[in-house]
Design brief:
This protein is mostly helical and 213 residues long. It has twelve helices and no strands. It binds a DNA duplex (13 and 12 nucleotides) through helix 2, helix 3, helix 6, helix 9 and helix 12.
DNA sequence: ACCCAGGGTCATA
DNA sequence: TATGACCATGGG
């Protein structure tokens, strides 16, 4: 049982996921913040509102009052906090020179910079690195911890960075590693949702041992 | 009515 | 370092 085996099981079972849903790098970045501890359909409503307001760009978000911004993103939950986080992120993003500048940074430097923005934690930073900047990093989320600890491939108690390096080094010889890590995380999220839906019997679970019993 | 979702920050021990 | 409280909507 290996990481790659799990990947192929999920891919053959569910097919390509075509992540991240979004038309531009900035939409992906905003979505990564809005989806923190939130179901994606709620995020879609918030993004739709931002598009209707022509506000899905860093300049408009930065110059819109936090109160108004919070009202637009209300469906995504935690709207006061997320409005503040979006504005902090846009302030940093514009200051650094936006995508044309940031895309030239080395991955480690870009990660450190992202993590320095208030409201951007490890998972959100890696979402942005992988799906907006197409860097070969892996995103560790609650599904990943739960599924792979049940499979006996990782320890749930390990820290975020330890788990991330474990996945990345296990798959480092794959060609087009970015595309693989992109697909892998998306598949894990999809599988996690399916599994929750099938609890507790979990019949037809392609990973078998991942069932709850 | 209850549980949780594609997390992160901050205060406390 | 490591817990706990807090943030808040919407779907099951």
């Amino acid at each position: 049982m290996t990481f790659k085996w799990v990947y192929h099981q999920l891919l053959s079972a569910y097919g390509q996921q075509h992540w991240w849903p979004g038309d531009s790098p900035f939409e992906i970045m905003a979505g990564a913040i809005l989806t923190q501890n939130t179901a994606w359909p709620n995020v879609e409503k918030a993004i739709t509102n931002l598009k209707q307001q022509q506000a899905l760009n860093p300049q408009t978000i930065l110059h819109t009052s936090q109160t108004k911004l919070a009202e637009w993103i209300r469906p995504s939950g935690y709207f006061n906090i997320k409005a503040e986080r979006l504005k902090h992120y846009c302030d940093w993003y514009i200051t650094q020179g936006e995508y044309p500048v940031l895309r030239q940074w080395h991955t480690e430097k870009l990660r450190d910079a992202l993590l320095s923005v208030k409201g951007i934690g490890p998972e959100t930073a890696d979402d942005i690195l992988l799906y907006a900047f197409e860097r070969p990093v892996f995103v560790i989320d609650a599904y990943t911890r739960r599924i792979f600890s049940r499979l006996g491939l990782v320890n749930d108690i390990e820290k975020y960075e330890e788990l991330r390096h474990l996945f990345e080094s296990a798959l480092k010889h794959e060609d087009d590693k970015t595309a693989l890590l992109n697909e892998f995380h998306a598949l894990i999220v999809w599988h996690g949702k399916q599994h929750c839906k099938n609890k507790p019997s979990c019949e037809g679970c392609v990973l078998r041992q991942e069932c709850d019993f």
